[in-house]
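Example with several molecule types.
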Amino acid sequence: MNKSPDASNLDSVFSLSERSKLGEMLRSQEFWIVVAVLIIGAVVGMIAPRFLTSANMANILQNFCFTALMAIGMTPVIMTGGIDISVGSTLGLTGVLLGLFCASGYPFAVVVLFVLLVGTFVGIVNGALVSYLKLPPFIVTLGMMSLVRSQTLVVTNNQVVYDFGKAGDTLLALGSGSFLGVPNVLWAVIVSAVVMQWLLSMTKWGRYVRAIGGNENAARLSGIPVDRIKVSTYALLGAMTGMTAIFLVGWMGAATNALGQGQELQVIAATVIGGANLLGGFGTSFGAVIGSVLIEVIRNALLLAGVNPFWQGTFVGLFILFAVLLERFRSTRA
Amino acid sequence: MSLLELKNISRQFGAIHAVEDVSFKIEPGEIVGLMGDNGAGKSTLVKMIAGNFPASSGKMVFDGREVQFSQPSDARRAGIEIVYQDLALCDNLSAAANVFLGREIMRSVGPFKFLDHRKMRERAAELFRELQSETRPRDVVKRMSGGQRQAVAIARTRLADAKLVLMDEPTAAISVRQVAEVLALIKRLKERGVAVILISHRMPDVFGVCERIMVLRRGHLVANKLASTSSPEEITALIVGAKAAA
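Resulting structure tokens for the full complex:
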């Protein structure tokens, strides 16, 4: 009963890796979503050959980026067990403020800084209400979603902003330009995903984000500044949303007050499809990116396959349910 | 010199006297069982020692100095660690990550600092080897047995090099086989010179590892005697009040 294995025996136990690298990959949600994307691509490619053209691929790679940028920011929020449904509205507000400030003649760099600060501010308010007042994140950000969308209408007086003044050239060049043949916004996604994943797996901050999602009470007892970490995740998401607004408005060439409406659901769907657990504790930035790709591929494929676009929501919805089932299946078998 | 000495410690919550005039000493490397019925004041007493709240009156001397902890981190800094009943572990993290939670080992490259996963795994493996527990540093806590979870929680206290470990019902929710494992872990702490206060309802566990047994009843310390001079029957009588004091 009370077995006390000798030291050499223990060493062999410690050196055992629980599972192989291949097994690890086969178990990851990200892997199966990549497989799903490839299968959809192959099937649609046969039905509608236009899907696989380089022009269409470029189209997809441009379009998925906006959701992906915000989904990368959403990942740590969801990992702590939180959620932010106000990001669509924040995208709208930062987008129109970007336009208005460009139009008033401020230098582009100043406008960028300002937009990032506005996004961060919205995030800090969300985070502070969630952490310090212990309000449920869903309700807090539901309120913020309404408040921020209303402010978007107030500041624009329901007008579309399309005259960006002097800074406009830089803005449009950034939004629609590319570097080494890759669209600027795709660079932003790649860099953000790599940096975010590095933060999540190599820093104390990332470790604490994960710990809070796993057991908030344990994190607190271990002396982790739980409230500050939570606020930081919302603030970071706000800043990422502001950054998304810059690329999105620069690409579209106009800021409407409906900008980002409903996008929060796509962002959350992408994050969850990519393997983030709404109960907290799990998630990767790569998952958020591949989840965004899947949503865009579904949208694009249905259009090219000539399916009535009203069906889009059905397919995205089915994939969300599929992702949750996959997650359940993985965690019960593990 | 005693490691911990409580002198006439009392604690009131409004009109309720949760702990009244309790005095005792704990020697270094000693395993002491703290027993009592629900509401006898065990948790209150332990929480005062761990710094969760101060005593209403009385003195506490730890390691030769009079101490007044105002928060758990004060007690931790002094060398008192507590292993919580629900263990306070993060299920989604590895054993090594849990051992080092809040005290991560960092590696710096230039101005950047990042987690030294390897060093933490190696150090965690050392601690598990010391505790002779078959717990793999890389494994996720979610898939661990109750005994392995205890090993992780206890390794946390070893990391801090605690002088006194307070354990709250460590064997309450685990299988019989794992109980033996946990009791072995407690003995291992003693070998390292760590004193343990074991709060438990389970008579065989307390008599299995404790040298001394203290019994609380309605806030009063009614017994403080060597396990070898007592019996489970006597302790039961003391707990329920069939015997006034010993």
